[in-house]
Every structure is written in structure tokens, then in C-alpha cells.
Amino acid sequence: MSEPTAKRARLASDDGAATTSGQTSAGIIRSENFWLDDGNIILQAENTQFRVHKSMLARQSTIFKDMFSIPQPTKPLDPVIEGCPVVALSDKTSDVECMLSIFYDNNNVVDLENALPIDQLSAILSMGKKYEITYLRDRALKRLRRCFPVTLKEWDDSFGDANGPSISFEPMVDTIESVISLAHMHDISSILPGAYLFYLSQASPEEILRGDKKVLSQDTREQCILGRDGLIRRIQLFVNMWGNGNKFMPPASCTNAGQCSFAKADVLEMLIISLWLRDERTMWDLSPDIPPPASMIVSALCDSCSASIKTHYNKARERIWAELPKYFALPDWEELKDFDA
């Protein structure tokens, strides 16, 4: 038997026989949106049944197509409701509902063109991957990779994305935890460095370790804290090097030596606050622009000193981005491979 055929879903038991009220004797309910009178197959997920069409499922999914191609015995051994065979799925009801909404209602329920809540993105990825619905799987991957890319240029572009966010980040910390969990669950390693960095820029150490939602494993949370410490040490080293070197705000090219030389100590202090202390709870997100309050004092300097600071800032960003995976005990960027590689 071929592997796709071997993936055939197990069938529901006879306990799911329907009653005339639309609710089964075993407490199984019919979907309000997808109990189609002319449907010829019933999918059951958790305690909900969906009456839909074999032809629709087969057209969208390689797995369903293979399943329905198996020759059936003259006398079916499978449970039947109103003449329709019942196929039991191990998926969540909400995930099946999301998949069928896309099949039947297109964007009326799940708008694939705009930002998606993480639960819908998770459903699209999970169902697309499991049932080999390639366009759903690829759409979800594209969105995740757009938000958490592998290059610094793409990361910069995401800060000013004219097309808007690909994921709805509300609530912020809960959503990013779900993204990290999704990446681990589905082996999407390439998005993890960016996702971890974004997580550190939004969650305090207390939130990370506390893990109120129990979405991430304790090992993952501890690695985030270790990564945070490593990044802080690296940033601190850069600022110390700037303060001790003569290439940072070089006096020879300064056009306002009195003001700029006096402000150098303040600039370094503001960079410390901006890059690793911030509000004393979250991390720098490697944003392309120098964050406040450092940006305010830099803008008051002469053009030469301001340009020097921005050059050093960008070189530090490039170096940290290149090193980013190692802070979270991940392979180098070029070795991070996703399941679809």
C-alpha cells in the first residue's frame, strides 16, 4: 500500500449514528455551517460532524483524493449516516471548520489576503501540511517567513511593510509564543531566530520564565533567557568598544567640536538605555533606525558625528544578525532548514 493511501483516516464508530434532532445519541453535533443536504461524506472532528462533498475534498487535497480512490467493498463495513460514510479525523473542530470555510466560502470567513489571527494561520498550516493542500501550506509558510525572515534586509523591510502585517499580533506576547510553538511543532527552523528576537523585544524576563499560557516548554523559555543574556553582553561590548575607540564620532571630521565632544558621553549613555536597558524589561529589536532616546540626541549632532554613529550602529546590527541563531542554540543561518526544503 502506498504511503498516501496508508494515511487514510480511521472511520468513526457506530456510536455516531444520527438522531432526527440533528444531534447524535453519543452527544455528537452537526456543524451549523457545513451540514450540506446534498453532501455525500461526513467528516467528524472531536464532537462535531461536517456533511460535505467527496469531490470538493479530493479536488483540494491529495490525501483525501488518495483516500477516496481506494476500492470500497460491496457491503461497507464503515458506519453510515443518511447514506454517507463517516470519516473520523484527529484534528480540532475549529481547524476543520477553517479548512472547509476556505474550500466553500473562499475569503468570506478566512481572509487570506489580509493579516490572519494566529489560530487561523496555525489551522491553515496544520491542515495544509497534513492533508497535502499545497496552496494553503505554502501561503502559511510565506506569511511566517515574511514576518520572521532570514536576512537583515528583509527584517528591515518588515518594519515599514507597505502591505501591512501578515499576522495579527494581538495580544502580542501570546501571539509570538504561539508562533514559536508552531515553528517547533512543524519544523520551521528558519523563522526561529527572528521569532525569538521579536519575543525578547516584547516580553519581560518575568513573563518569559513565568509562562502563564503554558505554550512554550520550560527548556525553550530558559533558552530565551540565556539568549537574552548573551545578546545584552554582546551589545554592551559594542558600546564599550565605541567609547574606547577613536573612530566613533572622530574629532577630525567633526564640524561642531564643542557641542559634539561634550555630548559623546551622553550619546553612549543613551545608546546603553536604548539598546539593552530600554524600559528595563524588553530587548532591542535590531530596528533599522536608532531607537529613542538615543535617536533624539544623535539628531542634534553635526552631520559627520551623526553619520559615524549610524555607521557603527548598522555594523553592530549586521554582526549581531549574523550571530543571532547561536544565541538560541540554533545552527547557523545557512544550516537552518524547514520541512519543505
From TrEMBL:
Residues 39-112 form the BTB domain. InterPro entries: BTB/POZ_dom, SKP1/BTB/POZ_sf. Residues 1-23 are annotated as: Disordered. It comes from the Eukaryota. This is BTB domain-containing protein. It comes from Agrocybe chaxingu.
